[in-house]
Amino acid sequence: MAEEQPREIDQIDIISLVKQEHDVARTLLEEFKDASKDIPTQQQLCWEIIRVMSQHAAKEEEVLYPALEKIIGESRVQTCLQEHLEVKHMLKDLDEMRLDQSNLEKGRALAVKSVESTITGAYCTFLKLQTFLAHAAHEEAQELPRLTELDEKVQQDLSTKWQEVTLRAPTRPHPEAPQKPPQAVEAHKALAPADAAAGAQQLHRKRWPIQSRYDIMFMMKRDALSDVPHDV
């Protein structure tokens, strides 16, 4: 039996992890646009957009930006944090909207008008969230490549920490929370349990399993990149 060789890659690199989450958010925004006035689907997509973007912002603030600040400087990182804050306010607006199919089914003019107004509001918020796409594109073109200037061990540590923070990151927008460690870390830890409870309530509203669909897609990408065969 050949001697077992060490795995060359044990995890996805930090740049790929960040880009994967950008891709998931892009897909969700595109599906929201395509859903038009399909109210149940729009509501489910709203919840998932909120979850994905809120988690992503927390991870960037805890892991990515402190590392980048040493390379690109505090001023540029502060710009990134300001863009995060704008997105969080938009996500909070989206989180406070509730699209309810039952109102349409009742057929009452007032209720129908109310729901149509809410759909319009949600779509306007979605259009504003397109600023996230510009933020992500700039980050991928300008900031993320600079991470390669860091020592390889530092990059591996960032990847490990990113995946660890995933398990406890808040899943709802909190624009009032601190954005820089160590205060951000403590705030995120304190906010995450209530976010998880709110998410559990949403899962009982007969929503189709979009959360599982995107989590599985992410894990498949992760495994495909990290599964390097070795002889046994």
UniProtKB/TrEMBL annotation:
| Region described as Disordered | 167-186
Do you know which InterPro entries this protein is assigned to?
Answer: Hemerythrin-like (IPR012312)
* Residue ranges annotated for the Hemerythrin-like domain, each copy included: 14-146
Q: Name one Pfam family in it.
A: Hemerythrin
Where do transmembrane segments lie in this chain? none
Descriptive protein name: Hemerythrin-like domain-containing protein
Q: What is the species of this protein?
A: Dunaliella salina (Green alga)
